[in-house]
Design goal:
Layout lengths: L1 H15 L6 H16 L3 H23 L11 E2 L3 E5 L7 E9 L4 E8 L4 H8 L2 H6 L3 E5 L2 E8 L2 E7 L5 E7 L3 H8 L8
Antiparallel strand pairs: 1-3, 2-3, 3-4, 4-8, 5-6, 6-7, 7-8
Helix pairs in contact: 1-3, 2-3
């Protein structure tokens, strides 16, 4: 029971960290997991593998921040941030976001990837009838099927990349052209 508690606490702490691990740390965790597995210490092996996968997600999270486009002319952008969830929490995954702003407006881009929860959204997005029933409008972003939803004056654009990442762009409908330009400028190869 103590090992389970330590594993849960370790995973929780790791999910809150936003640090880049060295390849050595990852290799050490995998080696330790192998030793524990061969010794029949399955809980410790799982813990070490979860630790290694979280370190890898942290590294990928840092790389993903580079996918966000530069601020358009007349706009500024906050630094991108990325967070990881350990496999023990929600199946794992990476989320990243960046805010773009000018004197009067704001646009947010959110990326979510490597999470089993994205599969349901991908299935919905591939069904135009469901999108139409929910009030969405189909469009294309970088050649990919996307949906636009208008709620009052707020616009949301969502699409799933070929690598399985979900991209969400939110802002005022008055900034639709800027939102579409930003969505079309995301470096999908970095996802």
């Amino acid at each position: 029971m103590k090992i389970l508690q330590k594993t849960a606490v370790s995973c929780l702490l790791l999910s809150c960290l936003n640090l880049s691990a060295s390849a050595g740390e990852i290799d050490e965790a995998i080696t330790a997991a192998t030793k524990h597995y061969k010794a029949g210490e399955l809980s410790q092996a799982i813990s070490q593998l979860d630790y290694a996968s979280t370190l890898i997600r942290q590294e990928k999270g840092e790389q993903v921040k580079l996918a966000f486009p530069a601020a358009p002319s007349g706009w500024q952008a906050q630094d991108a941030n990325a967070e990881v969830a350990a496999a023990a929490m929600f199946g794992g995954g990476i989320s990243a976001s960046r805010n773009y702003y000018n004197d009067s407006d704001s646009i947010d881009i959110e990326l979510m990837m490597d999470s089993p929860m994205l599969q349901a959204f991908s299935m919905m997005l591939s069904n135009p009838s469901m999108i139409a029933m929910s009030g969405g409008k189909m469009t294309k972003i970088q050649g990919l099927q996307a949906v636009q939803r208008l709620d009052g004056g707020r616009l949301e654009i969502q699409f799933v990349t070929q690598s399985g990442a979900m991209v969400t762009v939110r802002g005022d409908n008055a900034n639709q052209s800027t939102m579409l330009a930003l969505a079309n400028s995301i470096d999908l190869k970095k996802l």
